[in-house]
Amino acid sequence: MICKQCGSELSERAKFCSVCGSAVEENDFERVDIFNFEHSSEEGKIEKDEAADVIADSLESEQDLESSDESFSNKNSEEICLEEKPKKRKGLLIAGLIIALAVLLILVVPRFLKRSKYKKAVQLMNNEQYAEAEELFSQLDFFEDAQERLDFCRKYLQYETAQRYLEDKNYEDAYNEFEALGEFKDAREQAEYCENVMDYNRAEELFKAEKYDEAKELYTDLPSEDFPEANERYHYCVNKINYRQADKDYKNKKYYNAYQAFTNLGSFEDAKARAEQCIQSFPVSGETYHNKDHQSKEVSLIIVPPSNDGNQNYIKIYTDKNLLISCITIKQGEQAKVFLAPGNYRIKTAYGPEKSWFGEKDMFGDKGIYWILRNASDNKDVFSLQSGGIYTLTLRSGEDVPGEKINSTKENRKNF
């Protein structure tokens, strides 16, 4: 059977909904009384039958006694007056009736009193006087459905207590009360609301203390219909966290990471100005680093990039064992000269537009192009430089230049 008010599933004999308290049938009180009256009639009939059995037993006892008396009279004497027998019989009958009446009273009266108390408790419950009804039902033990109704009254009173806590903004106690009620009425939803309010209040405290990571986690799960400002707070926390990380990267000279983070923040605080600060001035043409253990002027290498492609250039020279020997920057339209010891070298080149230099760690960021040079003859990335040699390396030339041709393949910036 299904409750028409809240849709909860009920037992076939249920007289009211244990979830919302609604009567299962119309005019519940009258129908309960009719049911109880009929039920009582059947039970009364049983009790009367039991009483009749007691009377019958009494009568049988009386007959046995009479029979015994008669036998005694026949054996011993006929002097006993025959007029005494009706007197004895009448006394026994009265005693039997008294016993039967006592049994009937013992069986019927307590039940009658309980039924009267039950009907009063049901009426109080129907009138939503749950405290008074609860007191009466608690005295009825397992009479009819008194325990079920007692449980409902107690839950309703607990629900009202939780509502008072909620009205007083005592959300923790309200949450505990609603949570304990389980599926009673809308207790589950009310408990969730109290929990959300507590989370929001805690998030606000963390927000004011600038603990944005913790506040963000609490704002995340709050429903926007109940806490419309939580979504705005959440995004502010996210932006503030990203801003702090960008500032940390900037201080650690991870300028490109900082640039990306500040750029993604858009108009948040001074993010645009901070993004511009991440772009570094390109160094003058020449070596920015030379390995002090490989100082030699036996080999001369002149590096000539394009003069009009609008790009700045950055070159790294390694030994064939991947030991870094030299780092060179060359501005647009300029060239650079380095001295090396005879040996085998790998050469990597990078270039990017103006105002895209983020330092030698990040170079041109994702705006740059990164290559590793190879011999066109064997496609190997190792160049052999001889003692006393004067070499010219022309980069990205669109015209034929004297000397051996050079190819290139793309290199990952992180492996540059």
Plain-language structure description:
With 416 residues, the protein is α+β, with helices and mostly antiparallel strands. The protein is 50% helix and 15% strand. The strands form two sheets. Strands 1, 3, 4, 6, 7, 8 and 10 form a seven-stranded antiparallel β-sheet that branches. Strands 5-2-9 form a three-stranded mixed β-sheet, with no helix packed on it. Helix 7 (212-220) runs antiparallel to helix 8. The longest helix has 49 residues, at 28-76.
Q: What is the distance, rounded to the nearest whole angstrom, between the alpha carbons of the first and last residues?
A: 75 Å
Global mean pLDDT:
85
Secondary-structure element order, N to C: HHHHHHHHHHEEEEEEHEEEE
Based on Cα principal axes, name the global outline: rod-shaped
- Assembly status: single chain
State the low-pLDDT regions, or none: 26-82
Backbone CA Rg:
51 Å
Broad structural category = alpha+beta
Residues in helices, as a percent range: 40-55%
Total DSSP E strands: 10
Key features?
single chain; 416 residues; alpha+beta; seven-stranded antiparallel sheet; three-stranded mixed sheet; 11 helices
What is the strand and helix layout of this fold?
Layout: H1 28-76, H2 84-126, H3 130-137, H4 146-167, H5 171-181, H6 187-208, H7 212-220, H8 228-251, H9 255-264, H10 271-278, E1 286-290, E2 299-304, E3 311-319, E4 324-330, E5 336-340, E6 343-353, H11 359-362, E7 369-375, E8 383-385, E9 390-394, E10 406-410
Parallel strand pairs: 2-9
Antiparallel strand pairs: 1-4, 2-5, 3-4, 3-6, 6-7, 6-8, 7-10
Helix pairs in contact: 1-2, 2-3, 3-4, 4-5, 5-6, 6-7, 7-8, 8-9, 9-10
